[in-house]
UniProtKB/TrEMBL annotation:
Catalysed reactions listed for this entry: sn-glycerol 3-phosphate + NAD(+) = dihydroxyacetone phosphate + NADH + H(+)
Protein name (database record): Glycerol-3-phosphate dehydrogenase [NAD(+)]
PROSITE patterns: NAD_G3PDH
Organism of provenance: Tegillarca granosa (Malaysian cockle)
SUPFAM superfamilies in alphabetical order: 6-phosphogluconate dehydrogenase C-terminal domain-like (SSF48179), NAD(P)-binding Rossmann-fold domains (SSF51735)
């Protein structure tokens, strides 16, 4: 069962982490993604998760293995979309943190969550076609977006980047990771870089302004203050 949120760029394109595990270990690998902030799961607070499988029998088996009164599992026969949700939401989470750092309110954050979701759906259609849009309404999709955009480490990164501003100079992701996480790591910046490379290779950057802006802010190629302006001209509004 894979819970790692990420992807890997290879010469032949983008691979999901479960595919890397399957290829390296030569074993089947299902995935589990959802609104599952570790601290809250450890405290046995009620949460939901999504098991992504390629056949219903395996999904059901894993559901029986993992489900508990506080950990409610749904098995979905759309493994790639489930895993893609778990990776891409980290990039949106950074965007939500940038909004917080810039002192914008809940309406703006809601816009980031919605536009982020639309970019996730579009990215899946372009690069991993054949999935089911309904999967984005499982815990791995909208619910994990909400959790990450309010309580995740990636949100904290976005806010911290903005707040690290000293005379127009911002701290790097590496510096902030060392200061804030002390041994843990942010998943969003690496995923954002890989997503951006894929978009650039297909000349699609303009269609994904939120993913693009988050990536450029993480790489210090864009001032975080420009983030909101990038969203004003989003293709979803045209
Ligand atoms: N913490 C949570 O709330 C939570 C919830 C659900 C899923 N996840 C996912 O689980 C995974 C692990 O999360 P975590 O909270 O334990 O993170 P963490 O930052 O505590 O640990 C990640 C570890 O992976 C190592 N690492 C990073 N890149 C590596 C590489 N290329 N090769 C080898 N090691 C590498 C890091 O050094 C670090 O020790 C992540 O993909 C995360 O998104 C985390
Ligand atoms: O703390 P984050 O931002 O890495 O998010 C953790 C989990 O993915 C939330 O489900």
């Amino acid at each position: 069962m894979g819970i790692i949120r990420g992807m890997s760029l290879t010469d032949s394109g983008m691979k999901l982490i479960s595919e890397v595990i399957q290829d390296e270990l030569n074993i089947p690998c299902l995935v589990m993604m959802g609104a599952n902030l570790a601290q809250e799961v450890a405290e046995e607070q009620l949460c939901e998760t999504t098991i992504g499988c390629e056949n219903e029998e395996n999904g059901q088996l894993m559901k029986e293995l993992f489900a508990s009164p506080y950990f409610r599992c749904t098995a979905v026969n759309d493994k790639k979309t489930v895993e893609l949700c778990g990776a891409l939401k980290n990039v949106v989470g950074i965007g939500a943190g940038i909004v917080d750092g810039l002192n914008f309110g809940d309406n703006t954050k809601a816009a980031v969550i919605r536009l982020g979701l639309m970019e996730m759906i579009k990215f899946a259609e372009e690069f991993f076609p054949g999935g089911n849009t309904a999967t984005f309404f499982e815990s791995c999709g909208i619910a994990d977006l909400v959790a990450t955009c309010h309580g995740g480490r990636n949100r904290l990164l976005g806010e911290s980047v903005v707040k690290s501003n000293k005379d127009g100079k911002y701290k790097t992701v590496k510096e902030l990771e060392k200061e804030i996480l002390r041994g843990q790591s942010f998943q969003g910046p690496r995923i954002g870089r890989e997503v951006y490379k894929m978009l650039e290779s297909k000349d699609m950057v303009d269609r994904f302004p939120l993913f693009t802006a988050v990536h450029k802010i993480c790489e210090r190629q864009m001032d975080p203050k420009e983030f909101i302006q990038c969203l004003r001209n989003h293709p979803e509004h045209m």
